[in-house]
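Re: [help] complex structure
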Amino acid sequence: MVDQIIQSDGLIKEFPMGGFLTRKKDPFAKKRVLDGITFDLPKGLSLALLGPNGSGKTTLLKTLSTIYSPDGGDAQVCGYDLVSEMKEVRKHISFVSPAMDFQKKLTLKQTLDFFVKVTKGDMALAKDFIEELQLDHLWNTKLETFSEGQKAITRLCVGLQKNPAILFADEPTSGIDFRRKQIVLDFLEKQGKERTLVLVDHSPDVVDQLCDKILLISLGGTVQGMVDVTKLQNEFNYMYDIMVIPKDQMSEKEAESIWPRFEMIGGMCRFFAGTRAEAVDIHNKIIEWGKFIDFKTSGISIEDITLMWLAKHEKEQEEKLVEERKKIKQAEQLKQAKRNRRRK
Ligand SMILES: Nc1ncnc2c1ncn2[C@@H]1O[C@H](COP(=O)(O)OP(=O)(O)OP(=O)(O)O)[C@@H](O)[C@H]1O
Ligand SMILES: [Mg+2]
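Output below.
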């Protein structure tokens, strides 16, 4: 059996709705934000959480990092139970979020000294990271003068100095400039299989470089599916999407003559381009064809591609789900049979 670094089995998280909102009804009413999150992450792989705003990605990260306690379900993180072995889980993980603030009057060195001491971390790891990111000139500078990008790097450093088996990071590269972002990605990638990353990040380059799997979460906090990043790249190797509104109707033959990769959607035609040059080529051919009211080009988000992959493989996913449910049922029946035997 493959060893799992995270096993989440029906995790539920609820928040109070706030008395004033529900005074006339139920003052104790709760809103369910995670509604039975189930997935496994094998050891040595990294995961990206994707989903629309408010779908519960940050809440899931915080729940798996023991910041929030779950209201239902079970989870094992690094082989320890999330609730009954919370202290053990905490020893093996770090959580990094843009909401994490520091003592403004402390210098970078004093801040890292503090975290190394309380988490029994490794100052050499912190120094490595700061030097690689070329921030060592700020060693004795107070954090109150740090830019957003410099604070984001400091947060990551605080997470990494602990040498965690899993680094849970909420939008870790936001605010970091393009050049430094690439250094951060290369640094995290270099650590490869030693460290599992569980990230919330919408940029395709971060997911491409650092993650092996994507967990897509829908509004309401349910798992829509889990996808392998390489499978996604192999099947949907395109970056631009050009939507054409034709004057009358565009035949499949006409579409094919413009570009072979297209999809007809309710009288409109959507072309897919892998590169900028291909997108320009498609533009020119559409203009040459000329029978359009309008056309629009947009960059494809990683969420879009994941959704398309899931739609294409819906049947496969459903069969997998039925198979998993069958296994769970069989395991339950086996447990029940054992209990019955013991009673006898
Ligand atoms: N502490 C809290 N108390 C009450 N409701 C909360 C709390 N934290 C989050 N929520 C609610 O839970 C839902 C999920 O929030 P969460 O921050 O996890 O979403 P998200 O997927 O991370 O969104 P985003 O992409 O905007 O960061 C939202 O409706 C939010 O309002
Ligand atoms: Mg969030």
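Residues 57-58, 170, 200 surround magnesium ion (ligand 2) (CB under 6 Å).
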